[in-house]
Amino acid sequence: MGQIEQGLERALRTRPIPSSTEARLRFLLAAHRGSTRRVATVLGVSQRTVQRWVTKKPGARRPPGPTQVRAITEAVLARWQPRIRARRRAQAEADGFVFHTRARFGFAAPAGSSDDPRVRWITQDLPGEVARELFAARDAGAGELQQTVIRARALGHAYFRDWGHRAHGLHIVFNDIVFADFSIC
After folding, report:
1. Phi and psi torsions of 23, nearest 5°
2. Per-10-residue mean pLDDT for the chain, 185 residues long?
């Protein structure tokens, strides 16, 4: 999962997901009404394996391996706050969002100009069309590069081109992303 996708996921949640693997397993069990069989089916392991992970008997508990921990995390993310996520996504697509980033950003300009690509802190309001485009690309399985292109085009239009009032036809450079975060108001 890339920086953009992680930022979108954080913006859609109002509470953090459970932090420990044990808490995540408890959440999955609660979501599946205590059925270790259903949780095992979701995770692609045997029912007995899930029972070993959640048992309270000392010495009988076996922790999941790294592959299983990733599967547990992905299963929890898929089921965490579904109605809130849908509501916040609809809100972002309708009203837009605020994008916060630190990355190398600028025009492909001669060195030393004020628009030369350099590491910048940027906080910019972006319209709902950008949110719709980012969510559609994410849902279609677009990679980090494709999502970066969408974001660079939107930031260039809003930040440098002043919503189309200046600097027409210049190429935007946006890379070396340190972090990407979204705020939905």
Report:
1. -65, -35
2. 77 89 94 94 94 87 91 92 93 91 75 71 90 90 84 81 69 78 84
* Distance separating the N- and C-terminal Cα atoms of the chain: 24
* C-alpha span between 11 and 97 (Å, rounded): 9
Reduced to 3 states (helix: H, G, I; strand: E, B; else coil), residue 25 is helix
Burial label for 99, CB within 10 Å (0-12, 13-18, 19+), is buried
Q: What angle do CA 173, 175, 178 make, to 5 degrees?
A: 140
Q: What is the pTM of this model?
A: 0.73
**SS3 at position 176:** strand
- Judge whether 104 and 171 are in contact, CB under 8 Å: no
Q: What is the pLDDT of residues 101-150, one digit of tens each?
A: 888 877 766 666 666 777 888 898 999 999 999 899 988 988 888 888 88
Q: Please, what's the largest Cα pairwise distance for the chain?
A: 68
Q: Beta partners for 103?
A: 120
